[in-house]
Amino acid sequence: MYSSWGSFIKVIKSVFKEGTMRKLVLGLLAVCLLAGGVFAAAPGKKVAFSLNGGLQLLFWSDIISQHLTLDFRAGFRFGKSFEISPEIMYAGYGHSSHLPADRTRIYPGVIANFVSRHFFAGVGVTFPIVLAGGSAIPLAPKGNIGLVLGRWMMTAYLMSSALSGETSWAPIFGLSIGYRF
Fold this sequence. Notes:
Number of helices: 2
Order of helices and strands: HHEEEEEEEEE
Shape: globular
Strand content: over 45%
Number of strands: 9
Helix content: 10-25%
Strand order of the largest sheet: 1-2-3-4-5-7-8-9
C-alpha cells in the first residue's frame, strides 16, 4: 500500500495534524457509548455480532469509484422486531482512474432496523472519516435492506456523502456478505 516507511509516516503525521484522528476517536467513543447504553437497557437480550465484507461504489459526476469494505456490526434487539445496530466500516481504495489512491475511509455509525425472521431494513447515520487524502466530512444518512439465512447475511445499502471539501452530495451504493456469530 505504501512504497516506503517514510510515506507511511507522512500520512500518519498528516492525520494527527489535521485533527482527523481526534474525530475518529470521538466517533468511535460515541458508537461505543451508544452500544453500551443499549446493552445496559436490554440486559436479557442476545446480542448478534457480524463481520462483513463487500464492495462499495461511489458515484460522483461521471466518476465511479470502487472500494472494498470490511465492517463489524452489533445488533441489540428491543422487542420482537426492532434492533439498534452500531457499526464501523472500513472502506479501502479499490479502483478509480480519477480519484487519488489514498482516500481510505472509516464509517462509524448506527442504524435502527426493523427485523423479521429472514429480513431486515433500516435507516441511520454514519460519520465518514477520511483517514488519508482528505478531511472529515459531514454526517451521512444511510439506508439498508438485507436477508439473513442462518448465520449468513447479505446487505445492500445506500448512503449519501459529500466528498472532502465539496458541498454537493454523492450517492454511495454497497453490497456486503457477512457471518453472524
